Amino acid sequence: MTQFPNFLIVGAAKSGTTVFHQWLSRQSAIFTAPVKEPHFFCFEGRNAATIGTHVDPHYAAAMTFEQTDYERLFADAQDHQLRGEASSGYLYFPGVARAIRRRNPDAKIVFLLRNPVERAYSQFMHHVRDGYEPLRDFTDALCVEGDRIARGYWWGYHYRAGGMYARRIREYLDVFPRDNLKFILFDDLVRRPESVLRETLEFLGAPYDCRLDLTARRNCASGMKRVPRYCWHARIASEHRGIARIMERVGLSPQSERCTVPAPPFDPGLRRMLLHSFRPDMEMTAELIGRDLSHWLYDRRDAMTPNRRELRAA
Q1: Looking at the structure, do residues 75 and 196 belong to the same domain, yes or no?
Q2: 3-state secondary structure string, 76-118?
Q3: What whole-number distance in Å separates Cα of residue 42 and Cα of residue 92?
Q4: Which domain does 197 fall in, by range?
Q5: Using omega within 30 degrees of 0 as the cis cutoff, is the peptide bond preceding 206 cis?
Q6: Bigger pLDDT: 272 or 246?
Q7: Does the predicted model carry a pTM greater than 0.85?
C-alpha cells in the first residue's frame, strides 16, 4: 500500500519546527518520519549534488530523493496512526504545494511562521554556532547573500530570502482548501505551547493523549551569548560526533569557555532596515493567513517603538 503522509509541517526554518515535530511524535495517534527534513517534495528525482553547495552533511543525509525511500519512512506506521513529517524547505521552494497535492489532495498542512527578521538572525547564528558561517557580522552576511545565491549556495544561507513567506503561502491556498491549512505563529508556540499543540491535534483529528514537558526548547541559536572562536573548530565538532565527544571530555568543545568569544550583536539600525524591507511581504502574509502581525513590526531591542502603520489582517 502506498504510504504518503496525512500531514506535513512546512516551516519556516528556525520557527520551532524541530520541537513541534518532536511533540507530535509522542502522541500515540501520530506517526512522524524517523528523520526530520526529508524534503522529498522539493527534490524528488534529484540527488544530493544538485541541492547547492556548502551544505551541512547531516542535513543532506536526511534528504530523500526517491519515492520508494520516502514511503519507507512511514512503513512502521500503524493503521490507526496519522503519518506526518516536517521539512522547512516546503515553505521556500516553488512548486512544493502542487507536488504535495498530486500525492495527497487531502493532506493537512501546518505552517510555523516567525518574525522574518528574528528568523534570519537565528539562521545566521545557527550557522555561526555550527561552523558553517565564516562571516561573524550579520550585516556582512546579508551583503553577500545575493552573490551566494547566484553561486549556488544551499538555501540555508538565504537569510533574508528565507523570510519571504507570502508567495509560497499563496501557492498552498491556490491548491488546498483553507480548512486544510493551519497557521501557527512562533510567538504563540512560545507563549502557550500546550494550547497550540491541542489545537493542532484537533485540526489533524487526533487526540491529545500523552502529556509532555513543553518547556524544553530545541535547536535555539539566536539567544546565544557566546559563539565558537574558530569556524573550522566548530565545523569539525558539528560534522564528526565522535571527535566532538572527545573535545567535550578534554574541555576543548567549541562551546567551552576557553574556546568561545562574545556573540556578534544584532545592530539596531540593521534591524530597522530589515523590518522596513520585509514590511510589504508581512502585509501580504497577514492578509493571506487572516492574522494580525502588527507586533512583528516592533523593534524589541530598540526601545520597543512600534511602526505607525500597523499590519492588520483584512
Answers
A1: yes
A2: CCCCCCEEEEECHHHHCCCCHHHHHHHHCCCCEEEEEECCHHH
A3: 9
A4: 7-115+137-204
A5: no
A6: 272
A7: yes
